[in-house]
Amino acid sequence: MVNSIQSFVRGAFIVSFFSALLSLAGCDRVATGELQVGQSTVADMKLKMGEPSEVRRNADREIWVYPLGPEGVKTYFMTVGPTGTLEKIDQVLTEANFARVQNGMTHDEVVAILGRHGKEQRYAMSINEITRAWKYNANNADMFFEVTYDGNGRVKASASVDPSLYRGSSK
């Protein structure tokens, strides 16, 4: 009886482990090449990626926004042309885009570049200031790009921060 329970538990663990690996592989569907620029349609995008978190419309194109995970390190902007075909895929959480964030910008201007933030922090000593953060990956290490807004909602400062700085000291 004990052996059969152990076998069952071991089998359940193996199935769970491989299921978890497969689900992780599916987290970044764009990188697997399931969507093809110039060929994939809106229907393909919805089938492979689901509904976008946001659709931005301009003259004759739409930008579909796909942040991957609540704490994902990638956010994709997918440009859809007037015929409903995927024209471009941009992963926007990059150093180049972070450099575009300038003091004086509004939150909406920052979101237009990076997509929605993942974390938000208010500090007791700076009541009117707010810091918003985007998690990203740099050289195989998770980082946060933080933007601090002043009381008027304008960028006051921005910087990339190592999340290990948030952890308490063991001493």
Give an overview of the whole structure.
A hairpin with a 2-residue loop joins strand 6 and strand 7 (141-149). With 171 residues, the chain is α+β, with helices and mostly antiparallel strands. The longest helix is centred in the N-terminal third of the chain and has 24 residues, at 2-25. It has helices at 2-25, 42-49, 95-100, 107-114, and strands spanning 54-57, 62-67, 75-80, 86-91, 119-123, 126-138, 141-149, 155-161. The protein contains four helices and eight strands, in the order ααββββααββββ. The protein is globular, with a radius of gyration of 20 Å. It is 27% helix and 33% strand. It has a four-stranded antiparallel β-sheet with strand order 1-2-3-4, with helices on one face. Residues 11-27 have low confidence and may be disordered. It starts with a helix and ends in a 10-residue tail after the last strand. It folds into two domains: 29-91, no CATH class; 95-166, Beta-lactamase Inhibitory Protein, Chain:B, domain 1, CATH 3.30.1450.
